Amino acid sequence: MTLSRSQFFSVLTALGAAPISHHSKPPWDPLPTPTAHSRALVLSGAGARGSYEAGALKWLFRETDQGGPPFDVICGSSAGAINAAFAALGTSAAIAQIETLWKNMPQANVVRLEPPVQDLVDAGIELQEAARHGFPANLVHFNRARTFLDAAGPPEEIAKLGGAASDAGVRALVQRYPYDIGGLKSSLLISATNITRMASDAFYRFAGPDADGARRRFLDRVEPRPRLASAADAPALLPQLPLHHALTQDNVEDAIVASASMPGIFKPVAVRHAETGETALYVDGGVVNNLSVSLAADAGATDITILTGTAAGELPKNQATLPGVLQEAYALMHEQILQDDIALAIAKNLVQRERDPADLNPTVRRYIKSLQATAWRPLTLRIIRPKTPLAVMTMGFNHQADIEAAFAQGYLDAQAPSLYSMA
After folding, report:
1. Cβ-count burial 325-353 (b if 16+ within 10 Å, e if not)
2. 0.70 cut: is pTM over it?
């Protein structure tokens, strides 16, 4: 649908922006001349619901070999990072590999427990068996449980693991097909959560004839903001860290695996920064930036397609189980991040015109200027998401029927995205 300017501002307000006065013109009126059109695809994290995204990709890239890739920029987080990495190759063969990957997921054994955790699980199974048997048969199971508990080690050592499962299962998926980062046809951006420096980072690789220019413009837009402090000795209000790092052949696998490493389930992954040679520990990109709408806008996109496996307004099922709690917590977190990121992308896109009121101090003036883009880029948003909640759960990697149903639903839904644009 097409929104009038007043309707568009109403949407912006509903998404969390400050109310806009209708009695005076905003500082961006009239709007500057638009810049060139650029298309982006943003893929969310959703665990096993990545199969829904894979189905949508099959439709979106159906003519890629004949007409070229349908997107200039592809951003991915968590499971969406795996899908994004293949989609950025821009070939029908890569899209077919994504389909094979997801439909074979139940046999891939993605969640591979660390040995001490597996020992604890095995000990629990033996104790259950002991409860089912009377004396003396139960003694055999008690002895086996003790053996597993001894092998698991002391609790303080288990607490140092960092995650119940290793990244071997996810890494095996990524390694299944040789990946040549030099073959990218679309620019690729992957979000990951840096727990070494407590920040939301992104790894980037620009492709195409203007790759160097696009990279320079992107880095100019995302450079750290000026320091904001109320007094000379006050700490910076915003982090002044480099939050964007180059993707190379050496670190692309680690970056993808790190982005898909759900905290508490998988161990953090060390990723090397090509610029400095330093490494940092990363977990799931969806923790902070599950849908990188503003990242896509920073990369120059004006037409952004959002792909997520969570239905609008999806309500929790109040399941008192660990998988159920994880599913509901992630669904809530991802929906809130989506709303905030859309609001941020729109707000940054509107603050365009030079504005340097004399009554603001130099620090605030520099900060406002850092938020302003160099040219007006009217955003068009297309959203592909299921109309009703998918049967497959975030951790439902072993549920073949649900994964295949989600894939089929994604293929259908991609044919009729919801459209939002500014008149």
Report:
1. ebbbebbeebbebbebbbbbbbbbbbebe
2. yes
